[in-house]
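Severity: low
Component: inverse-folding endpoint
Summary: output formatting inconsistent between runs
Steps to reproduce: submit the following structure tokens with default settings.
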């Protein structure tokens, strides 16, 4: 109550029997202030300051949910701007939480990673800026979605990430071994340029 909630990201820590739902939320008061100014929500200063990422948990397979805590806000987002659009990946005994931010200028990548313990009781790192091939000052990325894949010929894993870019109306695909340095940018452009291409997702194929 009192918040606009969106951008759900679901993860189930192995062996816990619990579902975790990460989401971004903005106070209704900030949204109304932006509407009165007739500013788009993504660019409105009131939202930039007040949006945060929180999470809830469920022990009955998603039938009911308990609000747990706020994980990221502007103070610990990595660039002092409000976070949004979380994506969560289980990595061993940790949960790696990725998200985007909306700083006033986009001189560096605006995707960050925060490492949490799998029970979410401990924050294991400060926000780390994700490094992405193909980035140049002025670009900003939105709606990160990540998948962790087992490499069949190596004893390691591969992270794949898709994000959309508003300026180029394009989806970018990257891959990474360590989850922080993403290489091999591949750009896919929507054929209808007048429409916004947003919120990409991906699903692993059969083994």
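Observed output (run 2 of 3):
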């Amino acid at each position: 109550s009192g918040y606009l909630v969106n951008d759900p990201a679901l993860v189930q820590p192995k062996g816990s029997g619990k579902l975790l739902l990460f989401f971004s939320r903005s106070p209704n008061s900030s949204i109304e202030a932006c509407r009165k100014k007739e500013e788009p929500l993504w660019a409105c200063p009131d939202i930039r300051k007040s949006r945060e990422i929180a999470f809830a948990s469920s022990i009955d397979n998603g039938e009911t949910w308990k609000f747990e805590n706020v994980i990221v806000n502007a103070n610990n987002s990595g660039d002092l701007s409000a976070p949004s659009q979380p994506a969560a990946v289980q990595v061993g005994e940790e949960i790696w939480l990725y998200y985007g931010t909306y700083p006033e200028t986009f001189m560096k990548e605006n995707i960050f990673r925060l490492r949490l313990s799998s029970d979410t009781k401990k924050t294991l790192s400060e926000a780390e800026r994700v490094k992405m091939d193909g980035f140049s000052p002025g670009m900003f990325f939105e709606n990160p979605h990540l998948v962790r894949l087992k490499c069949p010929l190596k004893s390691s894993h591969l992270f794949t990430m898709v994000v959309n870019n508003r300026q180029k109306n394009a989806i970018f695909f990257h891959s990474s071994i360590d989850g922080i340095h993403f290489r091999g940018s591949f750009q896919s452009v929507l054929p209808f340029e007048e429409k916004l291409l947003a919120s990409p997702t991906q699903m692993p194929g059969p083994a």
